[in-house]
From TrEMBL:
Gene3D superfamilies per record: Vaccinia Virus protein VP39
Compartment(s) of residence: Cytoplasm
Residues the record lists as binding S-adenosyl-L-methionine: R104, D105, E120, R121, D173
UniProt keywords, alphabetically: Cytoplasm, Methyltransferase, rRNA processing, S-adenosyl-L-methionine, Transferase
Name of this chain's protein: Ribosomal RNA small subunit methyltransferase J
Native organism: Neiella marina
UniProt cross-references to Pfam families, sorted A to Z: SAM_MT (PF04445)
Function: Specifically methylates the guanosine in position 1516 of 16S rRNA.
Reactions it catalyzes: guanosine(1516) in 16S rRNA + S-adenosyl-L-methionine = N(2)-methylguanosine(1516) in 16S rRNA + S-adenosyl-L-homocysteine + H(+)
Family: Belongs to the methyltransferase superfamily. RsmJ family.
Keyword Nuclease in record: no
Length: 251
């Protein structure tokens, strides 16, 4: 797991940066080490690679841009992730996203009415997620339902699955090695691969999820990927680049 420090963009943000560093057990202060760094800016916490500045920043923004467009015009309950978790008329499942990353799928499900618990184990990613969540809670448009429906947790996936209250659905989107050349991968995924690496315990997390999900486990995979743990799903929701493998635990 790549070590990473937290710094503040300006003096006024130093206290906030120190609080984030303490909360997620990350070092605070400038580092001479090349590569990735978390920077608290006036717009929020960002992940930046000082060796590749052209990649730009990665941050969590649920209030605008592509995320807002997906929330407002993405197809509602007809979109693939909603179908995969079983969200339909009369059924609004609770969802534990055990590999939350930047929380986008979880946020979409929450916007459709689901109670969502977001779990992220990597401290730097968890810090980005928490910072974005806090800002979203204060937003005049989405803050009320974010506060009511979304919870953020920092911890190991298996331990959190076992310790949190049972959810109807456990959602897994483990990091999977991309077969495309690096230049073709989005900046966000390139930085995440550099920071987090592959989820080598994905099969073990899946096994625990099957034991604890109330109704189903949903695994998001690239279209070319093998089934997780070599186990064929009960059914699938397929999109152009990805698929959602659905494993029913209570058919």
């Amino acid at each position: 797991m790549t070590a990473i420090s937290v710094i503040a963009e300006c003096a006024e943000l130093v206290d906030g940066a120190k609080q984030l560093a303490r909360r997620f057990n990350l070092p605070f202060g400038p580092s001479n080490a090349p590569g990735l760094q978390l920077i608290l800016t006036v717009r929020g916490l960002v992940l930046r690679d000082r060796e590749q500045p052209k990649l730009g920043d990665v941050w969590v923004d649920w209030t605008g841009g592509a995320v807002a467009h997906r929330r407002n015009f993405g197809g509602g309950r007809g979109q693939a992730v909603a179908k995969a978790v079983g969200l339909k008329k009369g059924q609004t499942p609770s969802v534990l996203d055990a590999t939350a990353g930047l929380g986008r799928d979880g946020m979409v499900l929450a916007s459709l009415g689901c109670q969502v618990s977001l779990v992220e184990r990597h401290p730097a990613v968890a810090a980005l997620l928490y910072d974005g969540y806090q800002r979203a809670c204060l937003d005049s448009d989405i803050g009320q339902w974010i506060t009511e429906r979304v919870q953020c947790h920092h911890g190991q996936s298996r331990e959190m699955i076992e310790s949190l209250p049972q959810h109807d659905v456990i959602y897994l989107d483990p990091m999977f090695p991309h077969r495309q050349k690096s230049a073709q991968i989005k900046k966000e995924m390139r930085l995440f691969q550099q920071l987090v690496g592959a989820d080598e315990d994905a099969d073990a997390v899946f096994t625990v999820a099957l034991q604890h999900a109330g109704k189903r486990v949903v695994v998001k995979r690239p279209d070319y990927a093998d089934f997780i743990a070599g186990q064929q799903p009960h059914h699938q929701i397929v999109t152009k680049k990805n698929r959602f493998d659905v494993y029913m635990t209570n058919p």
